[in-house]
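Q: Protein A?
A:
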Amino acid sequence: MKVLLAPGGMWPEPNGVPLAGSGHGLAPSRVVSCLARGWRATRPHDALTLLPMADGGPGSAQVIAPERVASREAIQGQGPLGQVREVDLVRLTPSSSRFGNRHRTEARTWFLDAARLLALPADPEEAAQEALEGSTYGLGGVIGTALSRTGPSDTLLVGMARSAVHDGGLGAMDALGGLRAAKDLLAHRSLGLVLADDIALGGMNGAGAALASVTSISPERAQELDRRACARAMEGVSAAEDLGPGAAGARRSLPVVSLLDDVGPPSAFAHAGDSTGTARLRVSTWGTGAGGGSALVLRALGAWARPGARVMAELVGLGDAVRGQDLVVAAWGELYDVLVDGVVGVVGQQAASQALPCVMVGGRCAVTRGELAAAGVTNAYGLREPRAADPWDAAGTHELESQLTDIGSRLARTWSR
């Protein structure tokens, strides 16, 4: 039997926000190793393909297979409070994929794991300090460094996620030398934002409103921070739109990306540049809350954006890997609905496109069978019951790995033929 193991990371999600890379939970590579160990112990003759998945959040560069990596560099950057952190810059091996509106067979593609720089802390007090005092300056710095490595026809993909920092991207623009310098820097570059989180910067359900649930600051203080960040970000957007073409070349139209543009299976970034227009960006626009609001200003300067799980599926070759399999296995930490652009949704859609059964492993799964079926998922296996009082990750990393290994064995007994 041929089985594709394509799990995402299993991270705890207090208040619905994954704490990816926080030291809690397991990264995708460790999840896939545990599942494979259990399966092989039970059905050693089955052919397993291991394909860990990511969504653009912290650590996404680690799922890119070595054969797809032409070079890897660790770039030092400044964290939210000035601490030194490292992010990976990966240059991918050439492929025939199409990015934007141009065929890029001779250009190079890079991935910057920038989400690691502003990863959401597990400690609400630390997260509160980042919200109150933190800056996105380091994010702009590592983007600038990465762009300096690229050529004019290259594509730089920047992994971004939600953060406790909430300065509206002001720090990032300062690090890039201001709006004019940033616009000139991006004028002949294809800069793509690989978004792990579709949350907007402002609004009732925006990143600012969510600060009260992921940090220890009060709702009133969160609202105050949000008003200030949204005002700063929109000032940047207005200023960017008012800038002339700049020294580097003609002004480009702004790619507008919405969830409706990306509901089908990924097709080598076909959507990345197909949806162009002049719609005005706002703080309520999809995905603008990533990176403390930096995503909003970068898009005003010409960057395009796509759901991270879809981009990462292209980079790791999910579409090719699923062909010829007999079963697909996905995994995620906590599942309360199946997002069409999330890791489980993307893996399920690919399995369904080949009429393959897809099973999901989660720390906790509270999704009905009907919802799972609609997403292409046949069945789900959880480490804890949906209504269990104790956290699924409470026992620690070693016990979590043991439980996943046991589930790998259980899946083999149930599904192998």
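Q: Protein B?
A:
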Amino acid sequence: MSYYQEIMKEISGNMQDLSKDIPAVMKAFSGLVGASTADGALDKKTKELIMIGIAVANRCDGCIGFHTKTLVELGVTEQELAEALGVAVAMGGGPSVMYAANTLKAFKEFS
């Protein structure tokens, strides 16, 4: 199993445990994510590209895994992802460069 798949598996289990303890919060969070990524003036792919930029700038490995996997499923190209990562680097500086490089690794794992 790859690095990001392992992270996602572990976090998914942890989130299930968290959902047992705070089901209303986790249901609301899931609804928020669904509503915020639904097609509107921006399509789901564009919204996921924004999310991956924020994940990189905030250095969240779990977010990188989940959102990169979704982007692959939505048919994003490596170049589209790379350009979104360039924006994240501009906003997040050196630490975002490190996470942008890791996000390309995740893309290759899921492709």
